[in-house]
Amino acid sequence: MIQKFEYNFKQLQFNLTGNDLILSHGFSKEQDGFKLCYFQAPSSCCGDIPTEPCLFRLNQRIYCTIQFFCHQKILHSGSPLKLYFSGICGTATASLAILMKNRGHQVRGSDENIYPPMSLLLMENQIDVAAGFHESNLHPRPDLVIIGNALSRGNPEVEAVLSKKIPYISVSELLKQHFIKDRRSLVVSGTHGKTTTTSLLAWVFECAGLQPGFMIGGVAENFGSGCRDKEGEFFITEGDEYDTAFFDKRSKFLHYLPEQLILNNLEFDHADIFDTLEDIEYSFRMLLRLVPEDGRIVANGDDPAVMRVLEHSFSPITLFGKSNHCDLCLSDHRLEKGGTYFTAIQKDHPEKSFFLALHGEHNVFNALGVLALARHNGIEDEITSNAFASFRSVKRRMELRGQSSDILVYDDFAHHPTAVAETLKTAKGLFPEQRLIAVFEPRSNTSVQNLMQSMLEEALSLADRVLMAKPHRGESIPVKKRLDEGTLTNNLKRHGVTTTIHQNSDGILQTLVEECKPGDVVVIMSNGSFGNLHQRLLQALELLKK
């Protein structure tokens, strides 16, 4: 039985970067097995005080720092700022850097992993990017440093910022303060399909003449960018459940003030920060609590984890899916070369068929969520239909990078086993008579571990041939938790799939050049640059023709 209690924190003080944060009004109480602590700072403070509760799970160690810095006056001074983005080549970080430059600020940054498409976007926008993280990069001293979530303590630039007391902020908080807080916020969340769904939603609203601003974790081909700052009333954001920064361990999407929310699906992911699916569900429950009672939640009614989370909603819900209890039902769909036809049925709406210029049932589900939210906002089906048909996807989502000697080379961002399976199913559906070669780089914190090894084996078994790189930074994972390459290879062999593990992309390239034949379809999957393997393969195949 949970004991309810309250504490008075009026006399408690914290010393943070030279300022006393006085908990002048606060209490803690038990709720759903969690301790909620509410804080309020003195009105004289100019720091960024969280408006949401700081949450601490009982009997679990969570390191939580309320980072206190005087950036509010800096951000809203009205003068052009000297901004420095540490980890600038992250998809959201690069997009935000471009938005801030377009607002007249001086922008530069640094990163270790500098590769397309974000590196090209930064170059096109004349934003200087230093290679590597070095204290010297912070000279001259910027007014504000924006720290990407990949950076942690020990990073030379992080340590310099702390030592020199340079004001800093997270990407998510800067996005909220500058672009979201005065707009109607639409957030797209879920384990899979966020980038595609956010891009599709922005395109539908654009076709409706609503001129939305948006922030997408990729390059939306209809816009040629992953971000835009427009004067329309809506701002559409891809909402990621990953933590915000080393100094703010809340999920990013908790910053985005959602008025309306799409929740696509829920699976275990991000094994470096979440221990269980229950932990992830808790973050999504917190997200749902931020949606107002006159807002709207559009969710996948076929997903058991999503349905569990929705039990904690205070807002109206529209369910989409195949199940009879869904409000918006998919009645049928069929794959064509140019995309997918599907039919949707919803109460108080006529049965309607759509053509979506994307392949695969997973993308039809993405479109159902967009359709439901478009209808909620009064967008006519004819406009949505035209937008679906003219949608051009997102870079690195089953993107055809080229063709040589009748060999097709595709690039996909898939790294979670479910995403790998959906990508290969789509490729099989498009090219049922051709040999499918899957090339995979286990790079994410989930895919380099053995938590989902059986799922990954099942996904890769959809291919006719598998080439895989050794797990990225696999040596940092304890052997008992690490992806077992030998077991994976043997299990795929039982499925009749020859699999080879390579030290790096050079070995994979050599094998592909030796083995590829006319008619083959090569699908290269990684959430990193993978040594620019796609382009190098196409160049090597062209050389063989000479």
Q: How would you characterize this protein structure?
A:
With 546 residues, this protein is of the alpha/beta class. The chain folds into 4 domains: 1-68; 72-172, NAD(P)-binding Rossmann-like Domain (Rossmann fold); 183-390, UDP-N-acetylmuramoyl-L-alanine:D-glutamate ligase, CATH 3.40.1190.10; 399-545, Mur ligase, C-terminal domain (Protein-Tyrosine Phosphatase, Chain A), CATH 3.90.190. It contains 15 helices and 28 strands. The strands form 6 sheets. Strands 13-12-14-11-17-18-19-20-21-22 form a 10-stranded mixed sheet, with helices on both faces. Strand 12 and strand 13 form a beta hairpin. Helix 6 (194-207) crosses helix 10 (381-390) and helix 11 (417-430) runs parallel beside helix 12. The radius of gyration is 24 Å and the shape is globular. Mean pLDDT is 84; it is low at 1-73.
What is the fold's blueprint, element by element?
Elements: E1 13-16, E2 19-22, E3 28-31, E4 34-37, E5 54-57, H1 72-75, E6 82-86, H2 91-102, E7 106-111, H3 118-124, E8 128-131, E9 144-147, H4 156-163, E10 168-170, H5 171-180, E11 184-189, H6 194-207, E12 213-220, E13 225-228, E14 234-238, E15 243-245, E16 248-251, E17 260-263, H7 277-288, E18 296-300, H8 304-310, E19 317-321, E20 328-336, E21 339-346, E22 349-356, H9 361-376, H10 381-390, E23 399-404, E24 407-412, H11 417-430, E25 436-440, H12 453-460, E26 465-469, H13 485-494, E27 498-502, H14 505-515, E28 521-525, H15 533-545
Parallel strand pairs: 6-7, 6-9, 7-8, 9-10, 11-14, 11-17, 12-14, 17-18, 18-19, 19-20, 24-28, 25-26, 25-28, 26-27
Antiparallel strand pairs: 1-2, 3-4, 4-5, 12-13, 15-16, 20-21, 21-22, 23-24
Helix pairs in contact: 2-3, 6-9, 6-10, 7-8, 11-12, 14-15
